[in-house]
Amino acid sequence: MIRINEHYQKLQNSYLFAEINQRIQAFQQQHPERELIRLGIGDVTQPLPDACVQAMHKAVDELAESQTFRGYGPEQGYDFLRQAIAEHDFQARGANINADDIFVSDGAKCDTGNIQELFAQDLRLAIPDPVYPVYVDTNVMAGRTGASQAGRYQGLVYLECTAENNYIPALPSEPVDLIYLCFPNNPTGASITREQLRLWVDYALEQQALILFDAAYEAFIQDEDVPHSIYEIEGAEKVAIEFRSFSKTAGFTGVRCAYTVVPKACTAYTAAGVAVSVRDLWMRRHTTKFNGVSYPVQRAAEAVYSPDGKAQVAELIEYYLKNAAYIRQAFQRMGFACSGGDNSPYIWIEVKQDAWAFFDFLLNNAGVICTPGAGFGRCGEQHIRISAFNNFEKVQQAMQRIEAALLHHSPL
Ligand code: MLT
Fold first, then answer.
1. What's the rounded Cα separation, in Å, for the pair 320 and 346?
2. Which of 306, 339, 357 is the endpoint of a domain?
3. Taking the alpha carbons of 150, 137, 11, 142 in that order, is the dihedral positive or negative?
4. Which of the residues 169, 267, 282, 320 has the least number of beta carbons within 10 Å of its own beta carbon?
5. Domain of 358?
6. Do residues 317 and 297 share a domain?
7. Does residue 385 have its Cβ closer than 6 Å to ligand 1?
8. Contact partners, residue 299, CB within 8 Å, separation at least 6
9. Could you read off the pLDDT of 89-122 as tens digits, one per residue?
């Protein structure tokens, strides 16, 4: 008899964004005439930077000629891209990261989901609340938690992020081995200063713990005291893995390219206390289960680091940050407390009522799609997340519609 992995049955409903899509589809079937504005999932709307488009065209032409054709590439990425990443994203910021610490992949979602495979089953796990659901769900699937009770899985240490702590979690009060952090944060939009991040690195060094640092939104950082990489903090290369993505940086959500940094010094231990290189484990996994990102896509990603690419990416970021500032100001004007939107494309809004009810209210009365905060964890109840990824005109229209809806209908 074929049997299932019963840990899947502990999972709550469907994946957050799949659940939202089902609700939208049901709404659209009932109201085919309504034009919706999507400020829900963080999916980009602006076209790819021209430098990336040109590089991708050129690479496709190379594949059309027998002299320049390429088949399988290296699983961990071509050297030209790994070198460019190491130099521009790390060495230029004083971080001692080299090309062979970089693993190119097709998405930070996959990497943040897959990385847990390297670690023991009975780890003590620290997970922020609210949180990008992939970190939790993949550990539930792997059997690292108990059942869900009142929206929380047994066996996880939740790091609460609330307005009281400016959405920066305090160090855990009980010892943990594996810590997920995401800054600039999805969903709260909060960013962490160097001094605050140093506390976490020091904690991990002291506890022989490991930090999984999701920096997918790094390109949105504007403030000088906010580190772009955890490796700007001394000692982090021993205790941290960093995830980056070209999705939000350069509009690659549909193109698919990301990378994970696992420095040579990064160490985990056997039950007997023997130190093992985490990079070697990830290399083994990556080469066994992944066959690399396509050549044209890696050439397009490389072009992000060219002078033209850098200028075009900066324009994209500025565009979305202008949307973010507009959204935040609009919600503040409407009387809501907000965080994020300054070093991040997400605005986290306290709605003081059930998050899914407010989601339905905006859908029905404004035709605007947001993400209900409850989908990110218990601390997200009574919050919604608005994404700045859309055209400025649509963002303006969405804010006008929301303002009108709040004026004419009670969300309660
Ligand atoms: C989000 O909206 O949280 C992200 O777009 C999801 C993702 O990057 O997978």
1. 10
2. 306
3. negative
4. 267
5. 6-47+308-408
6. no
7. no
8. 55, 56, 58, 59, 80
9. 999 999 999 999 999 999 999 999 999 999 999 9
